[in-house]
Each structure stands twice: as structure tokens, then as C-alpha cells.
Specification:
The chain has one domain (9-93). The chain is built from 5 helices and no strands. It has helices at residues 9-18, 22-26, 30-47, 49-59, 66-93. α3 runs antiparallel to α5. It is elongated. The two termini are 16 Å apart. The model has no long low-confidence stretch (mean pLDDT 94).
């Protein structure tokens, strides 16, 4: 019974693509995973990104503050992309 700690980089990236931080949790980087999860949640809730997106999908009504929505969306996307790249990089470095 070996202690093979290697992780699949593709799976780590997909997990972080589903929810930023999950790929880090998969790679046992608990603090970093929590930081990505908190960062994306704060960005999402402060700019009402998810709420505005769901409202648009249901009613086709644009958000009241489109600038806030666009900047928030870009911030959420940037955090998510950073999380995916970081998770893949971590998984590749594990023995």
C-alpha cells in the first residue's frame, strides 16, 4: 500500500471550473481552496452577478446597473480562471 499522492491535473482543473477552490481542495490545498471559494463568493454577492444572470434568463430584463454587473462578472471570471490554472499547476507539481 503506497502513499501515491499524485493528482489528475485535468480533474483538478475541471473541479475548479465548476466551483473555484474545489480543485485546490482536491489537491489538499485547504487554505488556498477556501480563499478562492470566499473570493469568488464575495465578488459574486457584492456585484449580484448570479442574481442578475438568473433574472435575465427568466425575464430577459437587463440588470439595473449594467456596469456593476459587467465588472462583477469579469472579476468572477478572472478569479475562476486563476483558480483553474492554479489547480492544474498544483496537481502537476504533486509527486
Amino acid at each position: 500500500m503506497g502513499t501515491d499522492r499524485s493528482k489528475n491535473p485535468m480533474l483538478a482543473g475541471v473541479l475548479s471550473g465548476v466551483m473555484p477552490g474545489l480543485g485546490q481542495f482536491y489537491c489538499r490545498q485547504w487554505a488556498k481552496g477556501a480563499a478562492f471559494l470566499v473570493a469568488v463568493s464575495v465578488a459574486d454577492f457584492s456585484a449580484d452577478v448570479s442574481k442578475s444572470l438568473f433574472d435575465f434568463l427568466l425575464t430577459r430584463a437587463l440588470p439595473d446597473d449594467t456596469t456593476k454587473f459587467l465588472i462583477g462578472s469579469l472579476l468572477v471570471l478572472a478569479i475562476a480562471a486563476w483558480s483553474v490554472i492554479d489547480a492544474i499547476r498544483i496537481a502537476r507539481k504533486l509527486p
